[in-house]
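WARN no homologs supplied; continuing
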Amino acid sequence: QVQLVESGGGLVQAGDSLRLSCAASGGTFNSYVLGWFRQAPGKEYEFVAGATWSGALTAYADSVKGRFTISRDNAKNTVVLQMYNLKPEDTAVYYCVAGWYNGIYVKLVATEYDYWGQGTQVTVSS
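OK structure emitted
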């Protein structure tokens, strides 16, 4: 049974950095994209970033490009989202996700990801 467990959320000020980590277990993830979605109050799930097994293919939401970096440690089955220059609009619950990689592109739609973590809150004060 696949499990994704996030850690690293918290309350920070605008301009600060934060590192989210996700430990994946219960499966073989070399055919999966591991990534992150977020959901702000009253809003839909928003794709943040995703990476294939090798890390050769990554994708980012336009709103986080240049500020967030996703990386994978396949030996430990973890995926890390390093967030820099955080803004109040980054405030949301962040979810680690895993979904089968189609060999072409990193999927951007929430419904195409099979496994979700429980979420971790990130709050950025102005």
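The CA atoms of residues 72 and 79 lie 4 Å apart.
OK
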